[in-house]
């Protein structure tokens, strides 16, 4: 590995060599220790994990599946003790349930009510207390009063903001339109300045069921009273059979239930009895994440992408200012304005307000109130003329008026749909946009934008990649997904190439991407995943001596035709047994803790 590929890079470490194999790799001089795996008991009385005899009751007290967002908040100001908050985005049945093949899950033939309840119990989130032991290593505090699971099976949530209690939010089970059973497909998220945990509801459409199918076997929503709106959101996806046994997931029985999903959820990690809140002021779409910052004028700003091909980049700006006295459920999350971005060809960005009565957002156009604008955010953004993007994933503000937008890829953009902010047709590898808000204020409604990097292999001309030429063969990447800014203001990117990783031949990983000076646009590989896994997190503690990483779905993405890895017929087709490497255990999504050997700030 080259010692330091980039002159002027602020990231001090020797790159990991690119590749793809059954385990993870971290830069020399660092430890990447497994902290929590799917099934690990998280409460004092939780049963030990028994993968051959899993139950929903056990899963409700064990770490969930497919860890995605990771956040951390210290307890009582002690940096050696705190609460870890982790999203569990979705489930991979063929590697969770012994003997259940992929096809059993596709046609649901093998999905019993008990397996479905396990799936539901494995979704949602986890809050656990962790502490540093005498060796300086982080450990779960299993008997902590804070430890809990948040699931779509048994965690009731309330609502606030413009759509709370609205007639379109009411169902048979909840005539007040104020109580929802749980959260799903929690992809990325964020921590608020007051230490609460935000969970973004992303691909909620996939969980809805209908028994009405057309001649081709596709959902037939033609009789639904809001068919056009359902279609814009892709509901019902019929990815899961939950609606066969849980009425609220069946739109034939609860036609308004989809309006109650696709929001940003706030959780109070310090109070297990506090009911999480779905904040409807932040709009309803396939929320990738919810990274917050305090604008220099004191306003709370939350950047949110809608991860769908040709969907939009949003940000929310509070009306009030952050005083430092905020607590869980602060009105800063319900009293504010949601904006959607228009990226103009001249390099300016205009944030268009999603406010009822403004421009086309009127009753004449189907928006009777602000509740309608929030429930139908995508349609409102369509009407305002926002710029259709290449799948906006995480968006990371830095606090100085700068934000980084991950555009992960868009295989469906055609040559005539290319624009300055989405410059490549059939974009397999994505790009990253840097926004500079006017006046250095995150709350500004105008700013400028530029492309920081166009991803993919710079050695292949047809790819059209754009990197600082000091980037080594290890450092370039495809499909940026999550991002973090460390306490020194440096940008880190994790990737999710999905089943398309064969196009680069590289595992997903964590990259240090320089944004400043002569090294701007130089990328270095710090960590890489086991085969078939996507990297989520990343999250640095304020001291920068600890980095949390989440390896999602190890052994599964794009691995069906792989050869050369150990397999076992009990679980379908796992290409790796990471992290246990036990033939009786499938691969397990896990959270890792990265620390420097001997301690100290990471990459310095
Ligand atoms: Fe769940 Fe947009 O990645
Ligand atoms: Ca993601
Ligand atoms: Ca992030
Ligand atoms: Ca992704």
Explain how this protein is built.
The chain has 604 residues and is mainly beta. It has a domain of 176 residues. Helices cover 7% and strands 29% of the residues. The strands form five sheets. A nine-stranded antiparallel β-sheet has the order 14-15-16-17-18-22-21-20-19, with no helix packed on it. It has a six-stranded mixed β-sheet with strand order 9-8-13-12-11-10, with no helix packed on it. Strands 1-26-25-24-23 form a five-stranded antiparallel β-sheet, with no helix packed on it. A hairpin with a 2-residue loop joins strand 3 and strand 4. The two termini are 18 Å apart.
Give the distinct bound molecules.
MU-OXO-diiron, calcium ion
Helical percent range? under 10%
Distance between the termini: 18 Å
Shape: globular
Our count of helices gives: 7
Which regions are unreliable across 5 or more consecutive residues at pLDDT < 50? 561-569
User: Numbering strands along the chain, what is their spatial order in the largest sheet?
Assistant: 14-15-16-17-18-22-21-20-19
Largest sheet entry: 9 strands, antiparallel
Q: Give the DSSP E fraction (strand runs of 2 or more residues).
A: 25-35%
SS-based class: mainly beta
- For the secondary structure, the number of strands is 29
Average pLDDT value? 95
Radius of gyration, taken over Cα atoms and rounded to an integer in Å:
23 Å
């Amino acid at each position: 590995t080259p010692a330091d590929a980039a002159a002027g890079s602020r990231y001090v470490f020797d790159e990991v060599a690119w590749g793809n194999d059954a385990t993870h790799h971290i830069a020399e001089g660092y430890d990447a220790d497994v902290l929590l795996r799917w099934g690990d008991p998280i409460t004092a009385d939780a049963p030990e994990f028994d993968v051959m005899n899993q139950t929903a009751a056990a899963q409700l007290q064990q770490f969930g599946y497919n860890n995605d967002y990771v956040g951390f908040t210290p307890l009582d100001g002690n940096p050696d003790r705190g609460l870890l908050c982790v999203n569990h985005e979705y489930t991979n049945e063929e590697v969770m349930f012994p003997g259940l093949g992929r096809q059993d899950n596709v046609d649901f033939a093998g999905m019993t009510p008990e397996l479905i309840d396990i799936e539901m119990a494995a979704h949602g989130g986890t809050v656990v207390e962790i502490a540093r032991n005498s060796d300086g290593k982080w450990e779960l505090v299993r008997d902590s009063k804070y430890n809990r699971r948040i699931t779509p099976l048994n965690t009731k949530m309330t609502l606030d903001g413009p759509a709370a209690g609205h007639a379109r939010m009411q169902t048979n089970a909840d005539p007040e339109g104020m109580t929802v059973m749980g959260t799903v497909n929690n992809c990325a998220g964020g921590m608020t300045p007051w230490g609460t945990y935000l969970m973004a509801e992303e691909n909620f459409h996939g969980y809805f069921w209908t028994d009405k199918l057309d001649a081709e076997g596709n959902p037939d929503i033609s009789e639904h009273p809001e068919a056009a709106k359902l279609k814009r959101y892709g509901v019902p996806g019929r990815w899961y059979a939950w609606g066969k046994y849980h009425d609220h997931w069946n739109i034939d029985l609860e036609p308004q239930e989809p309006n109650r999903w696709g929001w940003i959820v706030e959780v109070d990690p310090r109070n297990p009895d506090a009911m999480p809140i779905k904040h409807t002021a932040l709009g309803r779409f396939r929320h990738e994440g919810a990274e917050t910052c305090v604008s220099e004028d004191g306003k709370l700003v939350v950047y949110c992408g809608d991860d769908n091909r040709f969907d939009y980049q949003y940000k929310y700006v509070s009306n009030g200012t952050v005083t430092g006295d905020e607590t869980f459920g602060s009105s800063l999350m319900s009293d504010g304005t949601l904006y959607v971005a228009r990226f103009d060809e001249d390099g300016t960005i205009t944030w268009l307000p999603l406010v009822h009565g403004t421009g086309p957002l009127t009753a004449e156009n189907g928006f009777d109130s602000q509740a309608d604008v929030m429930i139908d955010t995508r349609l409102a953004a369509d009407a305002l003329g926002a710029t259709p993007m290449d799948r906006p994933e995480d968006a990371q503000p830095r606090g100085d008026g700068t934000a980084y937008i991950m555009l992960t890829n868009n295989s469906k953009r055609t040559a005539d749909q290319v624009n300055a902010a989405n410059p490549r047709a059939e974009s397999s590898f994505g790009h990253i946009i840097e926004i500079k808000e006017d006046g250095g204020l995150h709350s500004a409604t105008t700013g400028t934008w530029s492309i920081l990097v166009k991803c993919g292999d710079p050695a292949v001309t047809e790819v059209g990649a754009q990197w600082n030429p000091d980037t080594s063969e290890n450092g370039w990447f495809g499909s940026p997904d999550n991002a973090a800014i460390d306490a020194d203001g440096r940008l880190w990117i994790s990737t999710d190439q999905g089943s398309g990783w064969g196009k680069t031949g590289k595992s997903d990983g964590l990259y240090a991407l320089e944004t400043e000076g002569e090294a701007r646009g130089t990328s270095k590989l710090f960590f890489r995943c086991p085969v078939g896994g996507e990297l989520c997190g990343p999250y640095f503690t304020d001291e920068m001596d600890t980095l949390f990483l989440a390896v999602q779905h190890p052994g599964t993405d794009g691995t069906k035709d792989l050869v050369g890895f150990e397999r076992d017929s009990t679980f379908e087709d796992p290409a790796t047994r990471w992290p246990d490497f036990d033939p009786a255990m499938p691969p397990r999504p896990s959270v890792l803790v990265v620390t420097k050997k001997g301690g100290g700030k990471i990459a310095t």
